[in-house]
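Hello again, I could really use a second opinion on something today. I've been staring at a protein lately and its backbone has me curious. Please have a think about how the structure follows from the sequence. I owe you a coffee for this, so here goes:
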Amino acid sequence: MLQTLSQAVVMRDCKTVKDLTERMVEERVDLFVILNQGLNSGMLWACEQFRRGAFHVPELLMSSRALKIGMNILRPLIRDGERNVVGRVVIGTVKFDLHDIGKNLVNIVLEGNGFEVIDLGVDVSPERFVRTVEKYEARVLAMSSLLTSTMGWMKSTLELLRESGMKRVVRTMIGGAPVTSIFARNIGADAYCAEATSAAQTVKKLLGIEA
């Protein structure tokens, strides 16, 4: 069923995604197995096809829609299973970038691993990132970019975070299709997340929490 669910996301088959997700929940399949090996697996494959030019924007958006149907079924169940908040994370897509597929995946993975996530959405300015981190006393700031033309806003945000004095107590993580570990190191980010499914492990490592 997991392979069929993954393929349904790729093929933008919303009804199959809904039916299979609900069926596996009823059969008590582990929620994170459904998420990672079914839904996320399909979405990551769709994203790879988009990067290669095999998928275009309409196909990618429809796959994202199918993914969200499954995620909406799992999210309340994952939250119900949480006991203690591990840490607070502010997340968003940087200024002038309207992409949120990867960010949304990171969001649900973090929530499912016990983190409280403040999701600022897309097109987030450095000032708003920093204000929110300060307001909620977040331990981690996570930023996403899917365009090379918007990556520079990650650097601007980190510079503002340093000027505020909060960089000493807040750990930072960046990710997105054009982002690399070298870029993360060059701008002073604490971590680079290559894929959404590794986000929780990366954040736990940043905070010194046993995975």
